[in-house]
Amino acid sequence: MTRAEETKLVKTELRKAGFDVASMDHGKGTAWGWIHVKLARPLEMACEEHGSFQSYNHTDCQACREFTEYLRKLDKEAVALILKVTGRRNNEYDGNISVGFAS
After folding, report:
1. Which of 7, 39, 61, 98 has the most Cβ atoms closer than 10 angstroms to its Cβ?
2. What is the model's pTM?
3. List of residues 6+ apart from 45 with CB closer than 8 A
């Protein structure tokens, strides 16, 4: 599978699964084998009081903790789906898959 085919497949499957993909590309240089995915941040769950959509250091706020846990859950689900559709093996770097959230 070429990188272009892999990109198209991953984007399509993530969107089918309900993920809002903001961007996706492959690494360059020493990160050549990596897939980099940016998902849209689900701001409807963010804590407006502390701006948890930007900072996650308010551990005493229930809404901030829930938002952070939700982002972690989305990250794990996205990595698992990408591993499944690409056939990559899960190693210590999640199969060389990086999932983040767009600002």
Report:
1. 39
2. 0.85
3. 66, 67, 70
